[in-house]
Amino acid sequence: MRIIVSGGGTGGHIYPAMALIKRLKERDLIDDVLYVGTEKGLESKIVQNAGIDFKTIEIRGFKRKLTLENVKVVEMFLSSIRKSKKIIKEFQPDIVVGTGGYVSSAVVYAAHAMHIPTVIHEQNTIAGITNKFLAHFVDKIAIAFTEATDQFSEKRKIVFTGNPRAQEVVNIKKNDRLKEFDLDPDKDTVMIFGGSRGAKPINLATIKTMEKFVEADYQVLFVTGRVHYDNVVKLIDQKYLKSANISVLPYIDNMPEILPDIKLIVGRSGATSIAEITALGIPAIFIPSPYVTHDHQTKNAMSVSKVGAAEIITESQLTSESLFMEINNIMNNQELQEKMSAESKKIGVADASDRLIKVLTGLVNK
């Protein structure tokens, strides 16, 4: 199979695409792959570092207000379609997959216009503007949350596949990697993590909870995000930084590798995080970002909490007291942990990539 994949802007669009490509290679179903993104996007670094062929188009999103700038955006979109058609003609794909972000709109639309099979993958409960636009033209719409069904009028095109990132992490086993962070691999561990860039409200609440964490029966792995690390360390009393119960880090490379050793995750509720957490059945406390489009992180979190696999603390409710109370409630209740873990695994999709691949091969063979 020759495949073009396009998605960019955020890791939530890129990592599922990378997981799909990885699984296609594992199953020896791929003859050649090309990733189309933008030069300035996060995908440029991630995809090329993975050794995958990469080409770029220039495109950006519309402004919410009516401005002359939007005229330029329309011109850029039309130009990006023309360039996408040229890329497609040269590569000759059997199928084109879009995982979201403005860049995929031009690539997938161009493929549709050239009568090449197309699929989009929607990672969130609330569909992005690009996928809502493309849904009218593509052959199939793959979704990761059943709640996303109502976001599309073309119900006959919808296939529930889950998020490919889930299958990528599901077979990771327990290991002793916590030793790298001066923690005990045999002790129950909570990881507090606000995303790759960190989250200031989560960091501040955690800093104020350090005194209580020192006395807890469990240990805490606090990942601040690189941009916040120096300020966070300055605000924490040195005696807490020296505690055997606490480890403070800016970031963890290959984060999924450590997940099987974590008893509870506290953090944002992005689609990729939820895919990983539910695939492994890890209880969670979600603190959704209220700043994302259409508040989709809250909707994502609710889809997990409604089955009893997670608790939610809104950012407006977040304090050191509410944070410690929720963490303590779960970490000191083995029965609750086991119940949350079981419910989490029920909604996890351990074969998400294979489900999506079945959709792709079905279209190609047809």
TrEMBL record:
Keyword Cell wall biogenesis/degradation tagged: yes
Protein family: Belongs to the glycosyltransferase 28 family. MurG subfamily.
Designated name of the protein: UDP-N-acetylglucosamine--N-acetylmuramyl-(pentapeptide) pyrophosphoryl-undecaprenol N-acetylglucosamine transferase
A Pfam short name: Glyco_transf_28
Keywords: Cell cycle, Cell division, Cell membrane, Cell shape, Cell wall biogenesis/degradation, Glycosyltransferase, Membrane, Peptidoglycan synthesis, Transferase
Gene (UniProt): murG
Every Glycosyl transferase family 28 C-terminal domain range: 189-356
Catalyzed chemical reaction(s): Mur2Ac(oyl-L-Ala-gamma-D-Glu-L-Lys-D-Ala-D-Ala)-di-trans,octa-cis-undecaprenyl diphosphate + UDP-N-acetyl-alpha-D-glucosamine = beta-D-GlcNAc-(1->4)-Mur2Ac(oyl-L-Ala-gamma-D-Glu-L-Lys-D-Ala-D-Ala)-di-trans,octa-cis-undecaprenyl diphosphate + UDP + H(+)
Membrane topology designation: Peripheral membrane protein
EC numbers for this chain: 2.4.1.227
Cellular compartment(s): Cell membrane
GO biological process terms on file: carbohydrate metabolic process; cell division; cell wall organization; peptidoglycan biosynthetic process; regulation of cell shape
Binding positions (UDP-N-acetyl-alpha-D-glucosamine): 10-12, 124, 196, 252, 297
Main location: membrane
